[in-house]
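Forum > Structural Biology > Help requests

Title: Can anyone predict the 3D structure of DinB family protein?

Hi all, first post here. I have the sequence for DinB family protein but no way to get a structure on my laptop. I'd be grateful if someone could post the structure tokens.
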Amino acid sequence: MSHLTTRPAAGEYAPYYDLYIKNIPAGHNPLQQLHEQPLLLKELLADFTEEQGLLRYAPGKWSIKEMLVHMIDTERIFAYRALRIARGDQQPLPGFEQDDYVPASGADARTMESILHEYDTVRAATLSLFESFEPEAFERKGTASNSPTSVRALAYILPGHEAHHVHILQDRYLSMLVK
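Reply #1:
Sure, ran it for you. Structure tokens for DinB family protein below:
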């Protein structure tokens, strides 16, 4: 999958997603990062209690459980977008409002174990999907959230989005627990 080591061009995604795409090292296959990320995430969360899963780094911010479910929801949505675009679907795909999804998720009432099980299930499905695509599928473009979007860009955005939230977990949440 050497075709994936070339970053998507500016016209393949909305400029906002630079925030995530920059989290993939140059020349690195984003699917490899999707394979590696669960190990890091589980290492970071290995000793978390249910109470710590409810931690918020500031009033009005998501709990750790809510952030994890947000990552899962986003992965599902972006993988669905990739499927539709890879199959040549040219129907514009709508955006979603993350701040509406999180409260409706019921994340804080769930166990960390159930959230991490769902994470594993979704990640396995995402990898299976992306690894099934022929090289030309990654070049296909569609429209998502009113912006051009390629399957290659989505392959970068997905692990980049998780990397973004893992940085937040490390910088804002875990620093509160070390004190």
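The longest helix spans residues 151-178. The helical segments are 18-21, 30-45, 50-53, 64-86, 98-105, 112-132, 151-178.
Shout if anything looks off.
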